[in-house]
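[Help] Beginner question about ligand-bound structures

Sorry if this is basic. My supervisor gave me a protein sequence and a SMILES string for zinc ion and asked me to "get the holo structure". I don't really know what that means in practice or what format the answer should be in. Inputs are pasted below exactly as I got them.
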Amino acid sequence: MIILVIGAHRDDCEIGAGGLIAKAVRKEHQVILVTVCAGGIDDWCVSKGREKEYREWTIRKAKEMMSVEKILLPYGDKNVITDMETRKEVYKKLSEIILEIRPDITLFHNRFETMPADHGIVGELAEYAVVFGGYYESEIN
Ligand SMILES: [Zn+2]
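Answer (accepted):
No worries, everyone starts somewhere. Holo just means with the ligand present. The predicted complex, written as structure tokens, is below.
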């Protein structure tokens, strides 16, 4: 079974679905985590100046410590996915990932979660991508 977990920020997948992820990995299911707003790490004081190293470390540690694949998308955090063009881009990217991976189960934020706003926006876009994946030109307008 392939399980896809989509989160807005770098710790959302693990915090929101950590127990399920651990059990699924233990049962040898394939688990893939997507962090949509991973672009925000560029501004994070801990990683400032070594962004590429931090991205590679994050992906490597997810594999070593949790036996999962982690995909980092380049969108910033702090409520930056507010314009329609960026929303369309994120929706298209999530649709492409879903069409490529073809997960059996996909987990994501509740679209009505408003604090922070990124959670609800990513939840809504992930829901559209799961339901309408591949038809991303018209559904989001
Ligand atoms: Zn978050």
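A couple of things worth pointing out: The radius of gyration is 15 Å. The chain has one domain: 2-132. Feel free to follow up in the thread.
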